[in-house]
Design brief:
heterodimer, A: 560 residues, Beta-Lactamase, 17 helices, 18 strands, B: 176 residues, alpha/beta, 6 helices
Chain lengths: 560, 176
C-alpha cells in the first residue's frame, strides 16, 4: 500500500479543485474527480463521501467511474456519519454487526456486507464530512488501507474547503442576491419617481412637454386636452404639427435658443406665452404654455379702473379746491345784493324827499326824514364795507382761475406732434415763464435737440423752477443744469432751500398736495410736470433733505 | 332779543369774513379764529353759543377741534363745514364729535342762517332743560329736609273718592 500512497498525486487533487473554481464547475464534477483519484490510488472499486449540510446531508457515491448523489435527512445512526461527527477514523470488516450500523450510509449499494474504512474530513472550522471506502464482500481491509486513506484526508478536506469557499454557496451568490435586491429596489424607486413626476406634470393645468428637437417625447394631460388628442397619439409627432396643425415651426417660436427664453404665440384667438428651457446636452428642451388672454384682459381692465380712479381723485380734489373760494364768493355776492338793496332804497327815499321839497311840502319832507333816519345809516355802513367784499370776491375768482389754469396744464392736450427742440431753449423759456430770470443760473453741458411736444416741457420746467424759488431765500441762487449721458438728456434743478420731510416727499406728485399757505398754491405743479415728463418717456425724481435743499432730476430719452 | 355769540373757525380769512358778515346781519355777535387752537382759547375767554368750524385745516382738523369742544364746553352747539362730501368724515363727525349739523361749501346763506338758528334753539333748550333739572333737584332736596323735620309732611292721604283726609293736628294748623 506504500506504493499506492506514493502514486497518489496530491497536487493533482488541489489542481482539480482549483480548476473547478476557475471553471466555476459544479461540486459534482470535483467530487467525482476526487473519488476517482482515491479509488484508483487504492486499487478499489467503490468510495463515498458524506457531507453533512443543512437541511440535507449529501452522499456522493462513486462506483467504477460513475458518481451518484443522494440526499438523506441524516439522523444519529450510521458508522460513517459517526466518523464525520466524532472525528475518529474507522476500520470494520463486518460493519452490519456494529451497533450503529445504518444501511443508508454504511452500505449504500446494499447487497452483502462489505468491509469498510472511513476517515473524517476536517478543517479549522470543524467537520466537513467523512470519506469512506469499501472492499468487495469476502475480502478484508487492513491498517495499511486505513493509513493510506488517512493520508488522503487532509488534501481531500482542503480541496472541499476551497471549493466550498469559492463556489456556489459562497459570497458571490450573496453579492449577486444583494445586487439583484438593490436593482429591484432602485427600479421600484425609479418607477415610483417616474409615476410621481407624471402625476406632477399632469397636475399642472397648463401644457407642458419635453421635446427632442421639435419631436414631442413626453407631454402632460393638459397638452393632450389642449390639442384634443390622447397623449399616446401626440408622442413622437412634431410640436407644430400637433399644436398649430402646421408643417413648419410657428412664428415667434423661441425653441432652439441656448438659454431659457420666452415668446408669444397667437393660437385660435388666444395669446400664449411660450417658455422654453433647453436640456443640455443635445437639443432637447422643456416647453411650457401659459394662456395670457384672461391675464391681459384683467390687466387692461385694471389699468382702466386705475385711470378712472385717478381721474376721480383729481376731480374730487379739484372740486374741493374750487369750493373754498366759491363758498365765500357766493356768500359775498349775497352781501353785495343786500347792500345794493339798501342803496336803492336810500336812493328812492332821496327821490321822494326831493319831490316833496320841490313841491314845497317841506314839513312833510322833514317828517319823512325823522320817521326813518336809520335807513341811510345802514346803507352807509354796508356801502363802506362793499369795496372789501368786492375785493375778496375778486381774489376768490382769481383763485378759481388759477386752479382751472393748473388743471388745464395737467390736461395739456397730449399732442402727438413732436418738434425737435433744444432743451436749453426750453429751459430758458421756462425760467422766463416763472418770472425768475435773475435768480436761475443755467449751466449747459449738452445742446442736443430732442423731439418734444410743443410747450409741454416748458410748463413742466417752469413748475419745477417755481417750486425751487419758493422753497429758498430770495438771495440764494437756483442752479439748473442740462447734461447728457449715454441714453438720456438730464435736466437738474437744484436749490439750497428749506427742503422737505420724508412724508412730504412721498406726496409731492399727489394732485392738490401743497405745503404753501391756503390760497397761494394749488398743488398741481409737480403733478403736471410728472404727467408731461412721463408722456415723453422720461422720468422725474425728487431728492431732498430738510434744511439743505432739493434736487429735481428730469431724464428724457435722447433717442426716439 | 338776547344777543348770541357764534365762533367761526377757518384757516382761510375770506371764508371767515364772509361767514362773519352773513351772521352779523342776523344780529349775532361773531368772533373768528384761524385755527382750532385759537378757537379753544377763545372758548375759554368768551361765552359762546355755537361753534362753526372748517374741517380741513393744517394742524388740528375741524373734527378734532369740535371733539374737544364737546368734551370741554357741553353747552356749545357744534357745526362742521367742509369742502367735500367725504362720508367717512361725516360718519366720524356724527359718531365722535356729536356734531349738530354738517354744512357743505359753498353754503347757501339761507340754509346757514336756518341751521345756526336751529342750533341755537337746541342749545337754549338744552340749557333751560339743565336749569329746570337743577331747580327740580333743589326742590326735592328741600322737601326731603322738611320730611326729616316733620315726618309725613310731604305725603297726602286721600279717601276712596279722592278727597283729602286731614288729621287733628292738620285741622288745628289750618285752623279749621
Amino acid at each position: 500500500m506504500e506504493s499506492s500512497l506514493g502514486r497518489l498525486p496530491h497536487a493533482s487533487i488541489v489542481d482539480l479543485a482549483a480548476a473547478g473554481i476557475a471553471n466555476d464547475c459544479a461540486l459534482r464534477g470535483l467530487v467525482e474527480a476526487l473519488l476517482r483519484e482515491v479509488t484508483e490510488s487504492l486499487g478499489i472499486e467503490r468510495a463515498w463521501l458524506l457531507c453533512p449540510s443543512q437541511p440535507y446531508e449529501r452522499l456522493w457515491l462513486y462506483d467504477s467511474g460513475k458518481t451518484e448523489c443522494r440526499q438523506s435527512k441524516g439522523g444519529d445512526r450510521g458508522l460513517v456519519r459517526s466518523v464525520a461527527f466524532d472525528c475518529g477514523a474507522l476500520l470494520v470488516n463486518e460493519p452490519h454487526r456494529e451497533a450503529h450500523f445504518s444501511a443508508e450510509t454504511d452500505a449504500p449499494w446494499g447487497g452483502a456486507p462489505c468491509p469498510l474504512a472511513a476517515v473524517p474530513l476536517l478543517d479549522a472550522s470543524g467537520p466537513l464530512g467523512a470519506l469512506a471506502i469499501a472492499k468487495p464482500p469476502g475480502s478484508l481491509l487492513d491498517a495499511a488501507d486505513l493509513a493510506a486513506l488517512e493520508s488522503l484526508a487532509p488534501v481531500m478536506s482542503m480541496a472541499l474547503r476551497i471549493q466550498d469557499l469559492a463556489s456556489a454557496a459562497g459570497p458571490k451568490v450573496q453579492a449577486h442576491h444583494l445586487i439583484e435586491a438593490l436593482v429591484q429596489e432602485r427600479t421600484a424607486v425609479l418607477s415610483r419617481g417616474k409615476r410621481e413626476w407624471e402625476l406632477t406634470f399632469d397636475a399642472i393645468c397648463e401644457p407642458l412637454f419635453l421635446l427632442d428637437g421639435f419631436v414631442i417625447r413626453r407631454a402632460n394631460l393638459a397638452l393632450a386636452a389642449f390639442v384634443g388628442a390622447g397623449i399616446r397619439s401626440i408622442i413622437g409627432k412634431r410640436c407644430h404639427e400637433v399644436i398649430a396643425s402646421s408643417a413648419t415651426p410657428c412664428r415667434g417660436c423661441p425653441l432652439g435658443a441656448p438659454l431659457p427664453s420666452h415668446g408669444e404665440l397667437s393660437l385660435r384667438g388666444k395669446t400664449y406665452r411660450i417658455s422654453t428651457f433647453p436640456l443640455p446636452p443635445g437639443n432637447s428642451s422643456i416647453v411650457h404654455y401659459r394662456d395670457l388672454t384672461e391675464e391681459r384682459r384683467l390687466g387692461q381692465q385694471l389699468s382702466q379702473t386705475e385711470r378712472m380712479a385717478s381721474v376721480g381723485r383729481l376731480a374730487a380734489g379739484a372740486a374741493h379746491e374750487i369750493n373754498n373760494p366759491l363758498a365765500f364768493v357766493v356768500s359775498n355776492l349775497e352781501t353785495l345784493e343786500l347792500t345794493l338793496g339798501a342803496l336803492s332804497q336810500a336812493v328812492s327815499r332821496l327821490q321822494a324827499l326831493r319831490s316833496l321839497v320841490r313841491s314845497g311840502r317841506v314839513a312833510r319832507a322833514l317828517a319823512l326824514l325823522r320817521s326813518d333816519d336809520l335807513l341811510p345809516v345802514m346803507a352807509a355802513s354796508q356801502l363802506a364795507e362793499a369795496p372789501q367784499v368786492l375785493a375778496e370776491c375778486r381774489v376768490g375768482v382769481l383763485r378759481i382761475r388759477t386752479i382751472v389754469d393748473a388743471l388745464r396744464e395737467l390736461a395739456l392736450e397730449t399732442s402727438t406732434v413732436r418738434v425737435l427742440e433744444n432743451p436749453v431753449d426750453v429751459l430758458h423759456r421756462a425760467v422766463t415763464r416763472a418770472g425768475e430770470d435773475a435768480r436761475v443760473l443755467v449751466e449747459v453741458q449738452s445742446s442736443r435737440r430732442i423731439p418734444l411736444e410743443p410747450h409741454a416741457l416748458e410748463v413742466a420746467l417752469a413748475n419745477i423752477v417755481r417750486n425751487a424759488v419758493q422753497a429758498s431765500c430770495p438771495e440764494d441762487p437756483i442752479c439748473a443744469r442740462i447734461a447728457e449721458d449715454e441714453s438720456a438728456i438730464v435736466i437738474e434743478v437744484r436749490d439750497n432751500g428749506c427742503g422737505m420731510s420724508k412724508e412730504v416727499l412721498t406726496r409731492v406728485f399727489d394732485p392738490f398736495f401743497t405745503t404753501r399757505i391756503v390760497g397761494s398754491g394749488v398743488g398741481l405743479g409737480l403733478t403736471a410736470a410728472y404727467g408731461i415728463v412721463t408722456r415723453h418717456g422720461g422720468t422725474i425724481a425728487v431728492a431732498s433733505e430738510e434744511g439743505r435743499g432739493t434736487v429735481v432730476t428730469v431724464r428724457l430719452p435722447a433717442r426716439t | 332779543m338776547s344777543e348770541h355769540t357764534i365762533l367761526v373757525v377757518d384757516d382761510e380769512p375770506s371764508i371767515r369774513s364772509a361767514l362773519e358778515r352773513t351772521l352779523r346781519r342776523e344780529n349775532y355777535r361773531v368772533i373768528t379764529a384761524s385755527s382750532g387752537e385759537e378757537g379753544l382759547a377763545l372758548l375759554k375767554a368768551n361765552p359762546i353759543d355755537v361753534a362753526i368750524s372748517d374741517h380741513l385745516m393744517p394742524q388740528m382738523t375741524g373734527l378734532e377741534f369740535l371733539k374737544l369742544v364737546r368734551d370741554r364746553h357741553q353747552d356749545v352747539g357744534r357745526i362742521i363745514l367742509t369742502g367735500h362730501a367725504d362720508t367717512e368724515v361725516a360718519i366720524k363727525a356724527i359718531n365722535e364729535g356729536e356734531i349738530y349739523r354738517f354744512l357743505r361749501k359753498p353754503w347757501d346763506d339761507i340754509e346757514l342762517k336756518v341751521i345756526v338758528h336751529l342750533a341755537l334753539e337746541q342749545v337754549v333748550l338744552a340749557r333751560e332743560n339743565r336749569q329746570l333739572l337743577a331747580t327740580v333737584r333743589q326742590q326735592g332736596e328741600y322737601i326731603r329736609d322738611l320730611e326729616t323735620l316733620h315726618p309725613g309732611i310731604s305725603r297726602v292721604r286721600r279717601d276712596d273718592e279722592g278727597a283729602i283726609v286731614l288729621d287733628e293736628d292738620e285741622m288745628r294748623l289750618l285752623a279749621l
